[in-house]
Amino acid sequence: MATFSGFPDPGSTRSTALDTTSASYTGGSLSSTPNIFQDSVSSSDISDYYKISIGGSSASLLSMTLDGLSDNASLNLYTQTGTLLQTANFSGTASELLTRTLSPGIYYVRVGLVNGAVGTNYNLSLAAYSIQESGISDNTRATAQNIGTLSISSPTTYIDFVGSKGVITDSNDYYKFNIATDGKLNLSLQDLVGNANVELYNNSGTRIAFSNNPYTTSESIIKDLTSGTYYIRVYDNTGATNYTLNLSFESKKGKRLDIWSGPNSSNPDSLTALGSTLYFTANDGSSGVQLWKSDGSVAGTSRITNLNPSGFNPANLTAFGTTKLFFTADDGSTGRELWVYDSSTNTTTRLSDINPSAGNANPQNLTVVGNRLFFTADNGSNGRELWVSDGNTVSLVKDIYTGATSSNPSSLLAFGGKLYFAANDGVNGTELWSSDGTAAGTTLVKDVAIGGASSVPANLTVVGSTLYFTANDGSTGIELWKSDGTVGGTSVIDLTPGTGGFGPTLLTAVGSTLYFVLDSNNDFKQELWKSDGTNTARVKSDLNAAPNLSFGPINLTAVGSMLYFTTYDPNNGFELWRSDGSDAGTYLVKDIWSGSNSSLPGSLVNFGGTLYFAASTFNASEEQTSREVWSSDGTEAGTQQVTYINSVDYANPDKLTVVGDKLFFIADDGINGTELWVL
Description:
Elements: E1 2-4, E2 18-19, E3 35-42, E4 47-54, E5 60-67, E6 73-79, E7 84-88, E8 96-102, E9 105-113, E10 119-130, E11 145-149, E12 156-163, E13 172-179, E14 183-190, E15 196-202, E16 207-211, E17 219-225, E18 228-236, E19 240-251, E20 255-257, E21 269-274, E22 277-283, E23 289-294, E24 301-303, E25 315-320, E26 324-330, E27 336-342, E28 347-350, E29 364-369, E30 372-378, E31 384-389, E32 394-398, E33 410-415, E34 418-424, E35 430-435, E36 442-446, E37 458-463, E38 466-472, E39 478-483, E40 491-493, E41 505-510, E42 513-518, E43 527-531, E44 536-538, E45 554-559, E46 562-569, E47 573-579, E48 586-590, E49 602-607, E50 610-619, E51 624-632, E52 639-641, E53 654-659, E54 662-668, E55 674-678
Parallel strand pairs: 1-3, 2-4, 11-13
Antiparallel strand pairs: 3-10, 4-9, 5-8, 5-10, 6-7, 6-9, 12-19, 13-18, 14-17, 14-19, 15-16, 15-18, 20-55, 21-22, 22-23, 23-24, 25-26, 26-27, 27-28, 29-30, 30-31, 31-32, 33-34, 34-35, 35-36, 37-38, 38-39, 39-40, 41-42, 42-43, 43-44, 45-46, 46-47, 47-48, 49-50, 50-51, 51-52, 53-54, 54-55
């Protein structure tokens, strides 16, 4: 591109026109490299003429733009003999664009001040291009160029020309294509030197989408489509232009496993993997909330139980071994108790009536340790205490707080072949305990807050051979602790000053590293930290930048050696981040909903070594928001939308659960309510 300014004022007539063919300016015929002339027109100099040359032995595509205007000016094109060929005259200070095909020869361009205007500077851009005409007769739907079936794996590109002005005219280009499955079409019209628009039609000829951006701005259509035949129309807007048409297709991945047919929601919940089968709860509209299972097929999705339709309500689903599933439920006569489903015999059994008759034992905190299931329950006489089952019988482990008062075991976790948990024995307050399933083997690990005060252990997390948790010893505040299961091996990692502030939370294991979130300086901003048990440090050093702002990181999830999380920064909102534990290796993966809007990644899960999650975004071409399933390999290019379930609203995928080589989740397609889906 060459820019010319400060030359003699272009003449006000054709005979005195500035000769752009001279060596002083372009030195010959126009080319695809634009030449820009900068000058002005005024009430005393209302016209500037330029002499141009179209070279070669065949027609070319001339493109002229006039911009940088502060008042109204027009653009005219004349033949060598003075015949007016075309005018561009938008109102006000809008830029002018004039394109057409021309035979080789000499032409004149006039920049003119419009009546009533005072004057304006301007930039005049002149260029000529080879015409990319394919020669295919495709100017009607009946003669459309047949693309065939769009491929999911590879995009399709066509380079062509449309134009209604000049010696070569081809006002419409039609393309016909098929798609075999439901999905999303991505269409773009690029490399424009003139104004062209694009439309999408269904097989009956009804226009279903269009894009008509001004001037040479690229066009784009993103549209959910069902399987069938469609047509694309590319057409010029009173000019001519080459173009590049890009097409790609993404299948509507995911299969709906409809449980309550019609628009009602079955609301699947408690999604739990046992072997290659998903177990969950759902309501089919006739039996209330019952226990269900699915192998990922429609035929293999079925109800297991049909008990107490008004309130069976299975919950706390917990896989045990390779064939058994524990859960809690209410059969309507014995209250909420512990149940087990055995997939090897296809039988469902209530294991016990811990709280006799209609009383609710309300088992909670179901936790598997080896070949035992620990849980908490209330038998009506000892309060809420620790219980255990071998899959066939249940028994009280120990009445930790003797008598009818509850010890309230909480934060149950398997570690080193034992159960670790927090409980209150009435003497030492709520402290860290362990159990091997026997009364004698259920003991206090350490009285962290010495005496009757409670340290309230929480956030129990295992990293290798170390148990981490949070607790308050009464002098350092809520801090990070570590333990090997012995009194001497249980110690504090003091990170925050004094006894106040927010303690560590969201403890997450990634390989041999513990990540957590902490407000280390009491500024009410949570930060990302890491520890290997010996060295503990903030991951990102800058306290005034993400992920050390606002709520800090949430949804911490391990995929291999990488930590993924959601966090906020003022430029991008709440988006997906990753960290390898280093400062430089902690950064935004992708601004999914561009700008300061938030895509709010949620339900993060490791599926076959790739992160899958739910995220929201905005489709600018359809002015529509959506929330679908996405996946990421940790790179911006490798972070992509996976599903296109709801074409008009949020699909709201949630509860992403991996079962073997399948990913189950719940979503709403806008027609069938919230149902079970599988990838």
